Amino acid sequence: MILDLIKNRRSVFPAQYNDKPIAKADIEKILEAANWAPTHKKTEPWRFRVLQGESQEKLGLFLSLKYLEIDPNPKEFKAKKLIENPKRAGAIIAICMQRDPAQSIPEWEEVAATAMAVQNMWLCCTDMGIGCYWSSPGLVKHMNDFFEMNQGEACLGFFYMGYTDEAIPDGQRTPIADKVVWMD
């Protein structure tokens, strides 16, 4: 049942991943799930770049060096984490949003559609037993220095994926009744 899948979705972080690779066919399935997200006026704003192997290491080095360059008080542990996390993942998908050139709908709707595409990927990963996590560091605004981006395209973060041997804890939520007002 879809509700069970939704309730079992969790953030699984790179430090939890093992070395098991993610097959290209599995990544393609995850991306196909993303492609079926709702989209106002059918703009389909989601764009993705898949990083595996050497490109992951290059991403980590780029993020770490950019952090050291722009942060007035860089922390050594953060610079190291920026290098290490990409190498731990089985794959990373850069999450980008391509703004409708006609700007026929508000930008927030394009961002929301892209976020729904990521939710579809997350649910697909959950179903496939792949841990994942959407990281959105401030450094994403510099991604046009790492890979070519189109006019009107923005990077919204990184979707880290990997298998884990760890037990994933149950999630906790406060009751929905505390968040709903019924209007007559």
Automatic annotation (TrEMBL):
It holds the Pfam family Nitroreductase. This is Putative NAD(P)H nitroreductase. Keywords: Flavoprotein, FMN, NAD, NADP, Oxidoreductase. It comes from Zobellia amurskyensis. Binds 1 FMN per subunit. FMN binds at R9, R10, S11, H40, W134, S135, S136. Its cofactor is FMN. It is an enzyme of class 1 (oxidoreductase). Signal peptide: none annotated. GO terms for molecular function: oxidoreductase activity. Residues 6-163 form the Nitroreductase domain. Belongs to the nitroreductase family. It comes from the Bacteria. Its EC number is 1.-.-.-.
